[in-house]
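input
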Amino acid sequence: QVQLVESGGGLVQAGGSLRLSCAASGISITWSISTVAWYRQAPGKQRELVAAITRSGTTNYADSVKGRFTISRDSAQKTVNLQMSSLKPEDTAVYYCNLGGLVSGERSGAHWGQGTQVTVSS
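output
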């Protein structure tokens, strides 16, 4: 059974950094061939793509996070990390890990984690 577990969220002041991790279990082959992405959803807003990474390492970022966030994956450990720097209050949201979608974000995958809250105070 597919399971994605996010960790690393929390409260941080504007300008600070956080590192989110997504750990996968039960999906060795699927994980190794699939795009993994981070989405976020702020209160009252639609869920949006933050960053995605393909099995070959191609990445895509939302314009709002380019230059501040970095996505990386460790296929052996079945983890994907999102390093977030220069955080802004508008980055406040629940962040979700997603497996199996398109790197462009046009289609999300079928597998989601439970989400982790990121709160950036001004």
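quick obs: The mean pLDDT is 93.
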